[in-house]
């Protein structure tokens, strides 16, 4: 058994790391646009990146390191994605680190960028900005604000994981993202820090596993960025680790961040969970659920609060998965809107379904009645909304 306790102040709960952010003059309002995460000593890092074929220069730079390398420095910038800049974009990163390295001891430094595609980095401005860093800072707020672009609110979260024997470890993350969100890996930068004494092999396994039901299960506008990045780093300062507990905590923290991406979707007003169950297998359920979360037809129905179940059924049928109208059952939360015995919405059920669709968040459940496959995807109507996310979790 283990408990998850919500903590304030994000990354500041993780010992062994320093972090902060400054304004280098890229944002016109003087907000932070350059940040860093630094470790006291080189640490293990695991990462998952965009599925976009045109991976940005920072990702290509990362992938040139030997497998299982350690790092002690991540440089973060907004306003410029350094994507579609060719070999010159990678060389620019090396030049920036060469200059920073004159004053800071760097081991396999990493850069992560977000912003406009197709422009070279302003190296001089970035290097000048890094001279403002307080490398002993532990300001989570300043760090997360340095990577915000179209985000309407900052995204940070932290848990303390209390184990049954009285020991504990902490896990925290910061994240950015609001547009170009698609279940081919959501457009965002997300950095997870922990003091858990987790083996590198478990880091790789659990990080890769957690994205399926979090960042790869959300959709806002169906586009996939060139810069999507999820990283996990550990200082191992707590000396404590439990694989089951860490897996659960990582899944919760990434799911919360993924839902915040949908919540902050550019122009959205509602967040909807699309649950497909009773599918032939889990893969078919995933295909069906993601078809619903991506469908522009469904998004317009959500925005218009139109309980017409025909758009849901049509999208399921068009997804190519095995389904049958005789076994299909559709619910909006706990309101039955369709089964073979109720093909038409009567006035009472239509009113109840419409009331569900007026809420900021709800679930559309589609039971196919064919097998045991199930999957839940998350989407929106391209409007701003509020998603209630539990602060504390218990196993």
From TrEMBL:
Pathway: Amino-acid biosynthesis; L-arginine biosynthesis; L-ornithine and N-acetyl-L-glutamate from L-glutamate and N(2)-acetyl-L-ornithine (cyclic): step 1/1; Amino-acid biosynthesis; L-arginine biosynthesis; N(2)-acetyl-L-ornithine from L-glutamate: step 1/4. The record marks 114-115 as: Involved in the stabilization of negative charge on the oxyanion by the formation of the oxyanion hole. It catalyses: N(2)-acetyl-L-ornithine + L-glutamate = N-acetyl-L-glutamate + L-ornithine; L-glutamate + acetyl-CoA = N-acetyl-L-glutamate + CoA + H(+). Heterotetramer of two alpha and two beta chains. It comes from Campylobacter iguaniorum. CDD domains: OAT (cd02152). The record marks 186-187 as: Cleavage. SUPFAM superfamilies: DmpA/ArgJ-like (SSF56266). This is Arginine biosynthesis bifunctional protein ArgJ. The keyword Amino-acid biosynthesis applies. Belongs to the ArgJ family. Keywords: Acyltransferase, Amino-acid biosynthesis, Arginine biosynthesis, Autocatalytic cleavage, Cytoplasm, Multifunctional enzyme, Transferase. Its EC number is 2.3.1.35, 2.3.1.1. NCBIfam families: ArgJ (TIGR00120), PRK05388.1 (NF003802). The active site is at residue 187.
């Amino acid at each position: 058994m283990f408990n998850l306790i919500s903590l304030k102040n994000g990354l500041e709960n993780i010992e062994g790391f320093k972090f902060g952010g400054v304004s280098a003059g890229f944002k016109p309002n003087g907000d932070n646009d350059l940040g860093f995460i630094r470790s006291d000593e080189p640490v293990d890092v695991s990462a998952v990146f965009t599925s976009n074929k045109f991976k940005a220069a920072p990702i290509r730079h990362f992938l040139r390191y030997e497998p299982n390398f350690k790092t002690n420095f991540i440089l973060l910038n907004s306003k410029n994605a350094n994507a579609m800049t060719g070999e010159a974009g990678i060389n620019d990163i090396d030049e920036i680190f060469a200059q920073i390295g004159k004053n800071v001891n760097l081991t396999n430094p990493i850069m992560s960028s977000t912003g406009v595609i197709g422009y070279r980095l302003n190296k001089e401005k970035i290097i000048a900005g890094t001279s403002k860093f307080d490398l002993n800072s532990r300001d989570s707020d300043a760090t997360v604000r340095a990577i915000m672009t179209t985000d309407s609110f900052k995204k940070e979260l932290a848990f303390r994981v209390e184990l049954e024997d009285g020991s504990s470890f902490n896990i925290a993350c910061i994240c950015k993202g609001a547009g170009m969100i698609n279940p081919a890996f959501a457009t965002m930068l997300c950095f997870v820090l922990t003091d858990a004494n987790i083996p590198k092999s478990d880091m790789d396994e659990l990080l890769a596993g957690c994205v399926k039901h979090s960042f790869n299960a959300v959709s806002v506008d169906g586009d996939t960025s060139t810069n999507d990045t999820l990283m996990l780093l550990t200082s191992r300062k707590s000396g404590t680790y439990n694989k089951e507990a860490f897996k659960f905590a990582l899944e919760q923290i990434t799911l919360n961040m993924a839902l915040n991406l949908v919540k902050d979707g550019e122009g959205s007003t509602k967040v909807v969970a699309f649950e497909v169950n009773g599918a032939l297998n889990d893969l078919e359920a995933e295909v069906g659920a993601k078809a619903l979360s991506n469908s522009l037809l469904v998004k317009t129905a959500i925005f218009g609060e139109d309980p017409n179940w025909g758009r849901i059924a049509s999208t399921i049928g068009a997804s190519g998965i095995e389904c049958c109208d005789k076994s299909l059952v559709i619910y909006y939360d706990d309101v039955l809107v369709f089964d073979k015995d109720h093909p038409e919405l009567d006035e009472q059920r239509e009113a109840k379904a419409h009331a569900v669709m007026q809420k900021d968040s709800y679930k559309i459940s589609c039971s196919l009645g064919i097998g045991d496959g199930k999957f839940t995807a998350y989407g929106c109507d391209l409007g701003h909304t509020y998603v209630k996310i539990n602060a504390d979790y218990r196993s």
